[in-house]
Amino acid sequence: MNSLIDKYNIPGPRYTSYPTVPYWDESTFSPEKWKESVVRSFHESNSGEGISIYIHLPFCEALCTFCACHKRITKQHSVEIPYLESVLKEWKLYLELFEEKPKLKELHLGGGTPTFFSPQNLKTLLEGIFATVEIAEDHEFSFEGHPNNTTKEHLQTLYDLGFRRVSFGVQDYDPKVQKAINRIQSFEKVREVTEWSREIGYRSISHDLVFGLPHQHWDAMEYTIHKTLELKPDRLAFYSYAHVPWVKGVGQRGFDENDLPSGEEKRRLYEDGKKLLQELGYIEVGMDHFSFEHDDLYQSLIQKKLHRNFMGYTSSKTQLMVGLGMSSISDSWYAFAQNVKTVEEYQKMVEEGLIPVVKGHILNEEDLLMRRHILNLMCQLETTFDSQDAIPELENAFEMLKEMESDELVEIQGSTIKITEKGRAFTRNVAMVFDLRMMRNKPETRIFSMTV
């Protein structure tokens, strides 16, 4: 395995979309075309599966130096109400596009730090949205909580509003690592919020762990995993730290790069961490996610319903996902659109009655085809091409896969590609073979994190 990681550990996308954001063709995109795609998708899907909403809540009281999210650091909670009022105004602009009441299937609060906002202000936001929609019977509402500022009132308020899944960012329990990434939180605090969630009735509690952080070593990671098992979260995200300090404003210069684990050390964190999680009863789902058998994420994998979008892996799928808030990304299946990236510009555009998108991509027929196959590989670990998939580069792609087949990462049976158990760690590499936009215009500088 070591030699394979040396061979395939290259920069590559995480494929929460296809085409990936650096390869969006903005020359064919316009706000009007985006709205047309939203109307089309809503018409096709609302009466059936419904829609998803992602709300980006960008404020944090402190900067975590490993974070690559769009955020605003402030301790001034007076920003809460004006921002949430803007989110509701943006949602009203989307409502004006719809010909009937939306059926809300999935909603996620991300950040930033959603629990920066008071329980009452979150309730006001959500009740404002819920008053305009029909909530699907099998809805899935989830949010991200910071263990240090998630209160029992937060958990109870959101539970009463229909939330049943919560994700806590743990990262690592080693004090030295926590200091380096400016994310100091005790195991006792994580235990408290996890136990509160369970007592209140949340059916899926998730913890995020990250490997490859500064000063990480195996003994400490082993300790973190064993401490995590004491709390038995229903699912885990076991992410590779994406070191992308060249992306403007991500704040990843809070430590010396020499403090990051070497390639060999990071490899052990990944391999031994994954092995230990599986020995302790977690099942790998998709890429970098694990869960117990009872969790919806695993059940969706078994039922071949696992989906992947800008929120990561989800146990349910909707064709239309509306992203609200500064920097949010929306997905109509036929197009992507990203909102402006500053709070001030976001609020100004909404006040002017404009859907605040700043860039996007309209998918052509080839994009739609390759998106489907890459999504199959990321979620089901297999895909099948048919005779109608007549794209010249496909022959080259299958040729490139032959080396992966000889390395036992994939099995090729006619026009079907299956990622093997050994190949799971290289899922992103397999998907890259079919990333036609990247193949035609390979980046001259590094724009993605490493694949392992």
From TrEMBL:
One GO cellular component term noted in the UniProt record for this chain: cytoplasm
PROSITE patterns membership: RADICAL_SAM
Gene3D superfamilies: 1.10.10.920, tm_1862 like domain
Free-text cofactor note: Binds 1 [4Fe-4S] cluster. The cluster is coordinated with 3 cysteines and an exchangeable S-adenosyl-L-methionine.
Catalytic reaction equation(s): coproporphyrinogen III + 2 S-adenosyl-L-methionine = protoporphyrinogen IX + 2 5'-deoxyadenosine + 2 L-methionine + 2 CO2
SMART domains found in the cross-reference section: Elp3
Residues that, per the record, bind S-adenosyl-L-methionine 2: F66, C67, A68, G112, T113, Q171, R183, D208, A242
Cofactor(s) listed: [4Fe-4S] cluster
Listed CDD domains: Radical_SAM (cd01335)
EC number: 1.3.98.3
Keyword annotations of the record: 4Fe-4S, Cytoplasm, Iron, Iron-sulfur, Metal-binding, Oxidoreductase, Porphyrin biosynthesis, S-adenosyl-L-methionine
Pathway in which this enzyme or protein is active: Porphyrin-containing compound metabolism; protoporphyrin-IX biosynthesis; protoporphyrinogen-IX from coproporphyrinogen-III (AdoMet route): step 1/1
GO BP, one annotated term: protoporphyrinogen IX biosynthetic process
Residues given in the record as S-adenosyl-L-methionine 1 binding sites: Y54, G111, E144, I329
Enzyme class, UniProt record, top EC level: oxidoreductase
Residues reported in the UniProt entry to bind [4Fe-4S] cluster: C60, C64, C67
Annotated localization: Cytoplasm
Record-linked Pfam families: Radical_SAM
Domain annotation Radical SAM core: ranges: 45-280
InterPro entries to which the protein is assigned, alphabetical: Coprogen_oxidase_HemN, Coproporphyrinogen-III_oxidase, Elp3/MiaA/NifB-like_rSAM, rSAM, rSAM_horseshoe, rSAM_sf
NCBIfam families cross-referenced by the UniProt entry: hemN (TIGR00538)
Family: Belongs to the anaerobic coproporphyrinogen-III oxidase family.
Described purpose of this protein according to its UniProt entry: Involved in the heme biosynthesis. Catalyzes the anaerobic oxidative decarboxylation of propionate groups of rings A and B of coproporphyrinogen III to yield the vinyl groups in protoporphyrinogen IX.
Subunit-structure text: Monomer.
Designated name of the protein: Coproporphyrinogen-III oxidase
Provenance organism: Chryseobacterium daecheongense
Gene that encodes it: hemN
